[in-house]
């Protein structure tokens, strides 16, 4: 018979709030989907953060910094531009701390993400995805206008805020080092703002300069073209959410990475669906791009050791998109 467990008083303390569960995400080895590949690939599952993505780390750090510097005052409004995950994370942290979250997002991003921001109590402004970054209707311009007209507000600006790289330098990088015991040859992560891969790269290259740091871009974005040629081009439309960029941003430190690989929408989505079917991991579309890019990197750099790849978020925010057969057929991917 199982022993009956009585709760003691100290068992009831719990943690102060859910933001204390941010970070320390698990890594799991991929098996079937990587069979025949000489390297061993481990996925770091960032969907295990409380609001479901790697951006919880960033939102918490940016808001704590703004509080400590005195810029964010009680009852204040936190304004941010997002492709969804940062907005969801900011909305969660604001819900805990009692701030108003005012989020600006392109209408290309999923309905699920919009719903999640609102369920945490945030206010959402949608912008057209067809406009260029300097257009007054763009994400960036709308956020700047909102900051000017909203009293007691701050603009977190993940794109240019040094705390973006720093939070991954302080948390994600050291976690990877500890989880692999330093026995690691390569890390692969998507680049949206670039903060994740730049912070991980800066930390791990200090620990082991030979480590290969690979950033994954989306075909159509301007980042990988700039990395290869130094030339700034106009971005084209792409469907994958969270990675790629239409402009250069300070959170992308190109000196912290060795290579940048661009993956198509179709390959990203088909690989993501395969990850669920072969590994039982339900992740977002950027994770498929990251795995596809990691497999290319293993071949290109003849990697035979351990590789850690970052799965940024969960599939449940893309049910109406890449996990919908109809959507995939309409877009011509299947
Ligand atoms: C799904 C997804 N993958 C990857 C990233 C890339 O993260 P970063 O902005 O740190 O480059 C993001 C960023 O929003 C994301 O939402």
Features:
334 residues, alpha/beta, Rossmann fold, six-stranded mixed sheet, four-stranded parallel sheet, 10 strands, 16% strand
Provide a descriptive summary of the structure in words.
By secondary structure, the chain is an alpha/beta fold. The protein has two domains: 199 residues, Rossmann fold (3-Layer(aba) Sandwich), CATH 3.40.50.1100; 101 residues, Rossmann fold (3-Layer(aba) Sandwich). The protein is 37% helix and 16% strand. The chain has ten helices and ten strands. A six-stranded mixed sheet has the order 1-2-10-7-8-9, with helices on both faces. Helix 2 links the parallel strand 3 and strand 4. Helix 1 packs across helix 2, helix 2 packs parallel to helix 3 and helix 8 packs across helix 9. The longest helix has 19 residues. The model has no long low-confidence stretch (mean pLDDT 95). Bound molecules: pyridoxal-5'-phosphate. Pyridoxal-5'-phosphate binds next to helix 2 and helix 6.
SSE topology sketch:
Layout: E1 27-29, E2 40-45, H1 55-68, E3 77-82, H2 85-97, E4 100-106, H3 111-119, E5 123-127, H4 139-149, E6 153-155, H5 162-180, E7 186-190, H6 195-207, E8 212-218, H7 223-229, E9 259-263, H8 265-279, H9 285-300, E10 306-311, H10 325-330
Parallel strand pairs: 2-10, 3-4, 3-6, 4-5, 7-8, 7-10, 8-9
Antiparallel strand pairs: 1-2
Helix pairs in contact: 1-2, 1-5, 2-3, 5-6, 8-9
The structure holds pyridoxal-5'-phosphate.
């Amino acid at each position: 018979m199982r022993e009956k467990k009585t709760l003691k008083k100290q068992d009831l303390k719990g943690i102060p709030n859910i933001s204390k569960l941010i970070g320390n995400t698990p890594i799991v080895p991929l098996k079937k989907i990587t069979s025949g590949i000489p390297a061993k690939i481990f996925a770091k599952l960032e969907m295990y953060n409380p609001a479901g993505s790697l951006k919880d780390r960033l939102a918490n750090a940016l808001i704590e910094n703004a509080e400590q510097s005195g810029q964010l005052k009680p009852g204040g409004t936190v304004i941010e531009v997002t492709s969804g995950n940062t907005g969801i994370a900011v909305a969660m942290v604001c819900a805990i701390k009692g701030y108003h979250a005012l989020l600006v997002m392109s209408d290309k991003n999923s309905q699920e993400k919009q719903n999640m921001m609102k369920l945490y109590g945030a206010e959402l402004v949608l912008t057209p995805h067809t406009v260029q970054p300097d257009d007054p209707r763009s994400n960036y311009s709308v956020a700047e206008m909102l900051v000017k007209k909203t009293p007691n507000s701050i603009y977190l600006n993940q794109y240019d805020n040094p705390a973006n790289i720093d939070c991954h330098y302080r948390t994600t990088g050291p976690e990877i080092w500890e989880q692999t015991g330093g026995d690691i040859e390569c890390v692969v992560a998507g680049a949206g703002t670039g903060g994740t891969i730049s912070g991980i790269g800066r930390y791990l290259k200090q620990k082991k300069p030979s480590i290969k740091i690979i950033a994954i871009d989306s075909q159509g974005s301007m980042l990988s073209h700039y990395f290869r040629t130094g030339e700034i081009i106009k971005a084209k439309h792409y469907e994958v959410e969270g990675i790629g960029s239409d402009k250069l941003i300070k959170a992308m430190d190109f000196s912290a990475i060795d290579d940048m690989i661009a993956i198509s929408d179709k390959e990203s989505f088909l690989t993501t669906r395969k990850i669920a079917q072969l590994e039982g991991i339900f992740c977002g579309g950027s994770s498929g791009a990251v795995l596809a890019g990691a497999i290319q990197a293993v071949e290109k750099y003849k990697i035979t050791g351990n590789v850690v790849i970052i799965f940024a978020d969960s599939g449940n925010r893309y049910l109406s998109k890449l996990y919908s057969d109809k959507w995939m057929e309409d877009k011509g991917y299947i």
